[in-house]
Every structure is written in C-alpha cells, then in structure tokens.
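Morning!

This is the sequence you dropped in the shared folder:
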Amino acid sequence: MNTQETIEKLSKMDENAIAEFRDELLSIIGKEPGVQDSHALMQFVKGYKNPQALQSAVEIGMKVNAVATEGLLGKYATVPAAVRSGAIKEVTLEERIKSLSRSVQDELLDELLQILAQNNVGIELTSIERSDIMQLVKGQRTPAAMFNAMQVALRAIEARKVAPAIKIEPKVRFGVELVPSTGLDRIVELAQRFENGGVRNIWVTDHYTNNDPYVTLTLIAKATNSATLGLGITNTYVRHVAATASAMSSLDKVSGGRMALGVGAGDKPTLASLNIDTSAPLARVKESVQVLRSLWRGDVVNFDGESVKLHNARLSLPPQREIPVYIGAQGPRMLRLAGEIGNGALINASHELDFRVAVDAIKDGALATNRSAKNVDVVAYTCFSVDEDEKAAVKAAVPVVAFIAAASPVNVLERHDLDAVRAQSMGEMIARGEMAKAFELVNSDFLDAFAIAGKPSTCIDRIDNLLKVGVTQFVFGSPIGPKKARAADLIAEKIIPAYA
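The structure's back. Tokens below.
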C-alpha cells in the first residue's frame, strides 16, 4: 500500500467520512499509553485534516498497532487513483461516483438533495434532469443520475451568488465560525449557505496548519453579498502588524467595506512550537490595535512601545474607513482591555456564568476610558452542536469540550463546580495522545459548562440564557454539528427564525 497516496486521498474525504476515520484511528491510538506528539494529535482531533496532520496521526497509529492502522487505511482508500502503472489515466466523474462506497454515495446524495430542495432562484431543468432527480428521490440510484444531479446542484449554487435568498432579519445578531481546514470550495459553499440562512457575521479562524485565512476570506468576500466577514482571531505575533493592516485594508476593498478584525494573544503551545516569544501579551495586543488604527487612518507611524515598534511606516492605500477591531479575550485583564479599546470582545465561552463575569470586566474597562459599554459588541464564540438527534449532537461536541476542559484554569472550573482532578486527567491523557480515554472523561457537567449541544429547542433555551446576561452576538462555533450542512439548515430553519 502507498501510505502517502492514501493519506492524500483521506485529506480530500468529506467531513463525515474523515470524522469516522478519525474516531477509528484514535481508538487504535488510545489503547496504548505513553504515545507522544500531542500537538499533532490536537490538530487532528480538532478537525484539521490537512495531509501533514493526517500523516502525523497515522505515524503514531503505526507505532501503536501497525496491522490495525494499515487495515484502517485500506478500508478508507476508496477513491480511484488517477495514476496507475506510471501512466496517467483519465477518470470521469461518473466513474468516480460509481467507485464510491454505498455509505459515501448516501452522504453525497443527501447533500445534493438538500441543495436542490433549497433552490429558490428558479433554475430551469431539462426533461432528463427532472427525470433523473425524481429517480434519485425514489431511491433508484445510478451514477449517471447522480452526475446530472450534481450539475444541477452546481448551477443552483452559482445562481445563489447573484440571486441570494430572501433573508429573515433576526433581532439577535448571529455569527458562525468557519475553520479553513477543508477544501476552499467547501468553505465558500458553507459561507453562502449560512449567509442565505440569516447569519450576519462569518468568522474565519487563523492557524498556520490550515488554508490561509486571507485567501479564504477573499474567496468568501467574492461569493457573498451582505454578511460581515471577520478574521477570528489572529494572534499579534506571527504576522507583523503592518502586514495585517495592509491585508485587512485590501480585504475591506474586495468585500465592499464588510471586514472586521479579531486580534488576540494567541495559543501559547502553538506559538511555542514556532519558537515565538509570547511575552507581554496585554501590551502586544493593545499596542497592535493602536498601530493598526493609525495605519488605517493613513498616518505616518512612529511607535516605540513595549512590544511593538515602527519607524516611518505608512500604508500607501489605506482603507476608506476604520475597520472594527474585536479583542479575543478570556482573562479579566484582556476583557477589561476589550472594554477600553475594542469595538467588540470575542469570548470563547458557552455558559451564562462565564459571561456574567466577562460583561462586568468589559464594563469596568469601558468606564475607565469614559466609553459606553453599549458600544462594545459582546460576542459569544461558543462550542456549538445541533442536530435533531440529541445524542449525535452531544457526541460531536465531546472532543472540543475535552480540550477546553483540559486548558481551563482552576478558577473557571470552580465557577462551574467541576472536578479539577478530572480536568487535569483529560489534559494529561491528551498530552500522552490517549484521546479516546480523555473523551471518555467528558461527562454531562463538563458538556453543560463548555458547550451548547442538542436539538434546536435545547439550543434556543441556552442561547436565551446568554442574551439575558448581555451577549449581543451569538457565534455558532466548532463543531457546529455532527454534519455541518445539516446543522446549517437547522440553524436557518429553526433557530434563527425563533428570533425574528
């Protein structure tokens, strides 16, 4: 078996198949204690399915149980190779469809029918296309019919770009977090689907292991019409502040003035792996925001701060407006800073207890600078998972909750009356690569504290609790649901309309 070729194929699988592969591989790894390389496994568990993350996870699996891992790779190597015996072989789309496993075909058909059911732009169908779609609806599946349905679905998606659906304008501002760890076309399609469903903010995460967020946002900007697009969040260490100012200025022009920037101190383990010094995070964020705004005004910037220093720097093409800046904040000092200088605060939390504390700190910061706290957008960047199957929704949230719990400080655990020893054990197991064992420690108490997961009605109740304590923007964060496309539909059809 060509392991490298198989990994390349795995990285192109749909999100449901990759999730199944991930769970099976982690069950193999989890049986053996003492496995190292926790950073690679963290990326893999969080949903990063680029070839590098997959390669690292597979290598660990091979160390633990080579036979089981090779068997798993063989099981999922279903995509036909385009190169055989050294010669390039043309493989038609119909042939690829025919070669897919039954379960993958089921998922593909489900996605196609969802797209076609949502089509409201009046695309015209030929008699053959109508016949093939009816054939699929009745369960009579052929590669040719699926091929024709795919062509219709692509026309429907393209039509949405110029004729978006009529949107419900909710009284609450909703956003979504998109992680660019899959194909860019998939991320763009999801962005369109969420915008058409009433989501007004689309936040794209920034992590060097994934697709570049600025490229991703450029594509989303060209494919959407009205949603505010944000980088949520970028750390202030990896890119120079002037480069960030220039990139955001360009994006604001491309998007027609729809950009927002989320900045924060960053993820210390990730930055440490890049050999980046993360000292003075509060000063770094504060000074970066000051410099960003000066550059966007077109000023010649001479700045000699504690952490940020520029000499005679300016943008030749500044934006036409001051781009809103959101502060990624967790601790009391960063939350207070958000109240002092931010247009908003991006807060990774899902429970009202955490937001009571956060809102008070933001108000203190605003008061210290004679600002109105009402001018600060309080954003709940939640761990969210919705599905009509309550158990499936909760299961999808478990891996994310395990990482949140493992990284939570003692005061946060005490706030929720959670078992600190249990949380510490999760962290130790994750560090050793024993993911499956760590996930088993996630109980209902941890899920309630760190996630919003369940049926739409359950999620609505939890959203209401956050709104009552001062949240002004609710973000549907990772994992969104066991299946993102279905979760997007549930959000559009059952959650957002509840706030119309």
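Headline: The longest strand covers residues 228-235.

More detail when I'm at my desk.
O.
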